[in-house]
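Write out this protein's structure.
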Amino acid sequence: MVVAVLLGRHIFPTAGRPSESGSSPIRTLPSPTTSSRVDVLVAAKNEAAVIEQLVNNLLALRHGEEQLQLWIVDDGSVDGTGNILDRLQEQHSSLHVIHRPPGATGWKSGALNAVLPHLQGEWILVLDADAQVDPELLEHLDPLLQDSSRALQLRKAVNNADDNLLTRVQAVEMAVDALIQQGRIAHQGCGELRGNGQFIPRQVLLRCGGFNEATLTDDLDLTMRLQLHGVPIAVVWNPPVAEEAVSSIGALWRQHQRWAEGGLQRFFDYWPALLSSRLKSRLKRDVLAFFLLQYVQPLVMVGDVMGAVVGRSLPLAWPLTTMTLLFTATALRHCPTANRGPSVPSIRGFTILMTLVYVLHWSLIIPLATMRMALKPKHHIWDKTIHGDATAGA
């Protein structure tokens, strides 16, 4: 009960009602006289189903022709992605294609690092191959891009939320995640990158050593290094970046298992630095609180249930489990649905119940990922998320 109260005091304010603007506090500057130069980076592996749609979407971005360059890495594709990109590159001078051979190391991080020596822009926008953005995105964000002292993360929206119940609850989960990220920032905690839709100052990324090719989750790893370098991350609610949610249980399980292992690995990799003076005390408290919430609490809950079953007794850690579910319900109640881009499903009644049931799958994934990491040597198996009607995996 003591742990539940202490942890709840820190995390519940982050699930509170957002400001009227619906975006996290970001210092905006006057409208710039010239636009910031932006390089858009995409690592594409076997993305023939969606890659042309992505390129057409990015070419529609409203920004000065000399201020925007598109860089797409064909990361050893075997489904014709490279041929499609070569054809499109011949038609558009702002599109640059780099081919990596099959079996090249580093996965997504290796593909992104292959582009870094060629970039000249002040900002790097990293997108997934299934991303879709508002044509006015850069015009809307240009005042924010005048301040290169922090990174930006766009809210992730789901453009196929109506496919089935699974995609619907994923759309709600992403919206709630953005709300909690904004709450953490508003209470002087840490924001986090989410891979798709992240704006990173190029010089900051170079100081941090580029993308880590020895991690499963490049975004969470980079989040940790940015925080240790004193670079905060702001979360922008509007406009969002739209992407596909996976539509089957198997694909969801593989995707979230990779996220769980990568998310936990970053704490193993950086814990000495996290305990050092490089991280401010308020950030340490926030990192600790959400480490306990995301990674320790599921272990406690599963162990508690197993102990109750074996010992034929009542669970002992019910205050912590109850607090976690109440925190999730509070965030669901306060999550705004008004937005630009794909609509957020109405969050009430049945949707709240189904989302609470859905988030319980993390209580299985986290312990299984932890057990595998504890019993086996550090290893990386990149399980690519399939987009559209693509059929080739990694």
